[in-house]
Amino acid sequence: MTSEESKSRAPRSRGSGTQTIYDRLRQEILSMSLPPGSQLDEVRLSERFGMSRTPVREALLRLSSDGLVTTLPNRNTIVATIDFASLPPYFDALTLMYRVTTRAAASHKDAARMAVIRERQSEFEAAVRAHDAYAMIEANREFHVAIAELGGNPYYTSFFTRLLDEGRRILRLYYSTFDDRLPLQYVEEHEDMINAIEAGDVETADRLAIAHAGQIVRQIQDYVARDMNKALAIDNL
């Protein structure tokens, strides 16, 4: 047996197995391939990934700490439901971080980081044109994280990244209101933000950030209202 064959047949370390399971499940949860409330059975997941239950359990613990899965009193684990009642304070925090990070970015000059922002914008535009919802979510997240990084405050970047990650499932619902055919208007909004940042126009960057966050919040609020009205109509039948 060659050394390469030995490497290929070597058992995967528990840490790498946990990471593999965690990454895959996290992507499926955030993209809504695994909808809220879906059961996550350790035995079935172990069979699916061809690993013991130990890395599966550890991956589920990590997802639980991320707030993405919930362990019920009967010890069953499910994909965490979306708490729509908690959305108002979430939206307040999200809007604030859009403003803070975009204003900070407009106060800094860094050609290398601006190049990264433009690259992320190109990826977002490509995803929008392809009607690829998951790619849109990922590119949108990376675009705004890049803006936060240009702003230069690691605490802002860390908190905003956490908010963006927590909101990926909400953003998936947002894109679904457009049947995943997001208008190019939202690509143009990103372009306007880039132009304001490059110009060092802090006030315009702030105004654009408020408008950008505002239209997302309104669209999701309308979605939630329609969804609740449908539920009430069914209950009254």
From TrEMBL:
SUPFAM superfamilies (UniProt xref): GntR ligand-binding domain-like, Winged helix' DNA-binding domain
Highest taxon above the source species: Bacteria
Annotated protein name in UniProt: GntR family transcriptional regulator
Pfam families: FCD, GntR
Database matches in PROSITE patterns: HTH_GNTR
Keyword rRNA-binding: no
InterPro entries: GntR_C, TF_FadR/GntR_C, Tscrpt_reg_HTH_GntR, WH-like_DNA-bd_sf, WH_DNA-bd_sf
Keywords: DNA-binding, Transcription, Transcription regulation
UniProt keyword Transmembrane helix, yes or no: no
All residue ranges annotated as the HTH gntR-type domain in the record: 15-82
One MF annotation (Gene Ontology) recorded for this entry: DNA-binding transcription factor activity
